[in-house]
Specification:
There is one protein chain. The protein has helices spanning 42-61, 78-81, 83-89, 94-111, 116-144, 154-160, 178-196, 200-220, 223-229, 234-249, 253-278, 283-301, 312-326, 328-338, 344-391. By secondary structure, the protein is mostly helical. α1 crosses α3 (83-89). The longest helix has 48 residues, at 344-391. The chain is globular, with a radius of gyration of 21 Å. The termini are far apart.
């Protein structure tokens, strides 16, 4: 799931220092942010793109579906066509869990010192422009290249534009949209903390309470509680929140404990997903990848990668969301038509490269201008609301 985040703009290089936990204050009342807490982490942009490429490779060459005899995408098992690629791609689904951890980190970072209105506007302009394009683009490709995925009814496609289809039992235009439902529920929960004012203590309390509810929800057998608690994704988001608190305030035993619990709960969720959904990779390999990723993120949080300031990583990170949204259904449909025209490994590279180019164009020609227009409109709307309240 997706890279649905907004990075903090870079600031001038300054000596590293931490904020004290006591300095975390509610939004609008001063943030107490140390210089390092506001510095852009270029490495995270790179990780996001790597995670998106992992997911794309998995969908094209590593799923159980593409490894079946006579599958409609390749015509033959991907493991027979390209054994090494298939073996590696079988673990690419972990990119979604990587997205969730990064989302927890960056949402906390970008929300610090913001009001609920600013949080809401930032999420709308980040999520919807590229998503609207992806829904219409994928629908168009599936109409032009039938036979791989079932086409939805027009009313279902239109409902998908709300991004709320998973809560209403309406099918997704593209299967990857399921992660957006997890992200939206995380945003709604975290909005409560933003409204109260982000502080070290409140974010820690949020992690503990959410983690406890997510742990108990399946045993309670209450669908509403499971819907809110999101036990499938909660501990990955919590890991990201704990890592950001380490980045902002420095590590302590409590934060290491939260991260350790997220690691233990996360490995169990990885195993459950392998057993019930993926069926193509082993738990040990998935657990190793997840562990290495968390260790690397801890190094990022503690400042060991601060010297990496390659500006091209910003562009790489910008490709992530459009790439994730557009690659799966449309990409596999295209592969089904082009599979006999070239070597399968070359076709993989060509399709992924093509979607990277498309993602760049979507970012420049759709996301940026549409987001600016929506932001201006929403800002005027909220200004009008405040004026109406004062008159009332």
């Amino acid at each position: 799931m997706p890279p649905l985040t907004t990075a903090v703009p870079p600031v001038a290089a300054v000596p590293v220092q931490r904020s004290s936990p006591d300095q975390g204050t509610p939004a609008g009342k001063g943030t107490g942010r140390g210089p390092r807490a506001g510095r852009r982490l270029y490495v995270i942009d790179g990780i996001r793109l790597v995670a998106a490429l992992m997911v794309a490779l998995h969908h094209y060459a590593g799923t159980e579906r593409v490894d079946r005899p006579g599958n409609v995408i390749w015509g033959r098992p991907a493991g027979d066509l390209m054994p090494t690629v298939h073996h590696l791609a079988a673990y690419g689904w972990i990119g979604v869990e990587i997205f969730f951890v990064i989302s927890g980190f960056v949402i906390c970072m970008s929300s610090w010192g913001r009001s609920p209105r600013q949080f809401f506007v930032s999420r709308v302009i980040r999520l919807y422009p590229a998503y609207w394009f992806a829904v219409l683009f994928t629908t168009g490709v599936l109409v032009a290249v039938p036979g791989v995925w079932e086409r939805l009814k027009i009313r279902e496609v239109l409902f998908n534009l709300t991004m709320l289809q998973s809560g209403s039992g309406v099918p997704n235009v593209d299967g990857v949209y399921w992660t957006l439902w997890s992200e939206l529920r995380f945003y709604l929960l975290f909005l409560v903390v933003v409204a109260m004012g982000l502080t070290y203590r409140r974010v820690v309390a949020f992690c503990c309470v959410w983690g406890a509810v997510a742990m108990l929800a399946p045993a309670a057998d209450l669908p509403v509680l499971e819907l809110v608690a999101n036990p499938d994704g909660a501990w990955f988001f919590i890991a990201g929140l704990a890592l950001y608190l380490m980045h902002r305030f420095g590590p302590d035993l409590l934060l290491w404990g939260i991260l350790g619990m997220a690691w233990l709960m996360g490995q169990h969720e990885l195993g459950r997903r392998i057993d019930e959904i993926e069926h193509v990779s082993g738990w040990r390999g998935a657990f190793l990848i997840y562990t290495v990723f968390l260790l690397f993120m801890a190094a990022v949080a503690l400042g060991y990668t601060d010297r990496v300031r390659w500006k091209w990583l910003v562009t790489a990170g910008a490709l992530t969301y459009p790439l994730y949204l557009t690659h799966y259904a449309a990409g596999t449909a295209l592969i089904s038509r082009l599979r006999d025209t070239m070597d399968p490994r070359l076709l993989l590279v060509a399709v992924i490269a093509g979607f990277c180019v498309l993602s760049y164009l979507v970012h420049r020609l759709v996301e940026r201008p549409v987001a600016r227009g929506i932001k201006r409109g929403l800002d005027r709307s909220f200004t009008r609301l405040r004026a109406a309240d004062r008159r009332g």
